[in-house]
Amino acid sequence: MSDLIDVTGRLRKMPAEAGAPVAYTLAVGDNRIPLNDCLGKRVHIDFEGVIRCINCDRNTKKSFNQGFCYPCFRKLAACDSCIMSPEKCHYHLGTCREPEWGETHCMVEHVVYLANSSGLKVGITRGTQVPTRWIDQGAVDAIPMVRVSSRYIAGLVEVACKSHVADRTNWRAMLKGDVPELDLAHERERMLGLIADDLAALRATHGEDSIREVAGETGQALSYPVAVWPEKIKTHNLDKTPSVEGVLEGIKGQYLILDTGVINIRKFTGYEVHFRVADD
């Protein structure tokens, strides 16, 4: 048995490109590894015991918000509570942690979409993050519903939708490939009818041009490089078990699917690891 790949560095969120199937890259320090080529190979991930903040590079005993040290978690706009709950945006109150960051990331066009990752869900993302956001969630199909002028308004639309549809993915079902077939174009029309009064009220407050329905836009189907779907989901945790290995049987969302369990790469952003791929 010989090592085909042997690198050490800090983990980052996996870059991915839409394709048939989605093409994944594993970022380990400055190394970029085409993961689709590793399917069927035995991979080894050894946590070196060091976590470094992806913003300031300081050592941290614990990773906050997927890769940040505690001081950065407390001061960065990217870690504020309104990122998870955009309807709580306080930019207009003049209290944004980083106004310039808010202008480039939040005060720009966002998409409110419907996706099918483990069933119907609603979500939001910057217009420039389509279809990356859908891939990160492991969606097999997604479709834009409305385009809005800011993250705050997107959050308000999402809140209106959450009375009728989930806003979270059942990640275990997603990783099992247990996804029902849905007609998202039909679901979009149904949802727009259900929230019509909410959209009218939001337009009255924020302007007619603040929310634009996109009923004519088509969705996007996505497939993933998975050879074997797991019947049961066992998770690997580098904090508890610093050495993980197994045959790579698939990649979906931000997860590696090994024959020994699954590991969420994004969860361990900032972790220094030794990554090897062996030729059995």
Describe this structure in words.
- The protein has eight helices and 14 strands.
- Helix 5 (151-161) packs antiparallel against helix 8 (196-206).
- A six-stranded antiparallel beta sheet has the order 1-14-5-11-12-13, with no helix packed on it. Strands 6, 7, 8, 9 and 10 form a five-stranded antiparallel beta sheet that branches. A three-stranded antiparallel beta sheet has the order 2-3-4.
- The model has no long low-confidence stretch (mean pLDDT 95).
- The chain has 280 residues and is an alpha+beta fold.
Strand element count? 14
Global shape: globular
Poorly predicted spans: none
> Structural class, judged by helices and strands?
alpha+beta
| Proportion of helical residues | 10-25%
Determine the mean pLDDT. Answer: 95
So how many helices? 8
> For the CA atoms, what is the radius of gyration?
20 Å
Order of strands, main sheet, comes to 1-14-5-11-12-13
Distance between the termini: 5 Å
Question: Largest sheet at a glance?
Answer: 6 strands, antiparallel
Strand proportion, as a percent range, falls in: 25-35%
Order of helices and strands: EEEEEHHHEEHEHHHHEEEEEE
Q: Which keywords apply here?
A:
280 residues, alpha+beta, 6-stranded antiparallel β-sheet
SSE diagram, text form:
Layout: E1 2-10, E2 16-17, E3 23-28, E4 31-34, E5 42-51, H1 70-75, H2 81-84, H3 99-105, E6 110-116, E7 120-126, H4 132-136, E8 141-148, H5 151-161, H6 171-176, H7 184-194, H8 196-206, E9 211-213, E10 220-221, E11 243-252, E12 255-258, E13 261-264, E14 271-279
Antiparallel strand pairs: 1-14, 2-3, 3-4, 5-11, 5-14, 6-7, 6-8, 8-9, 8-10, 11-12, 12-13
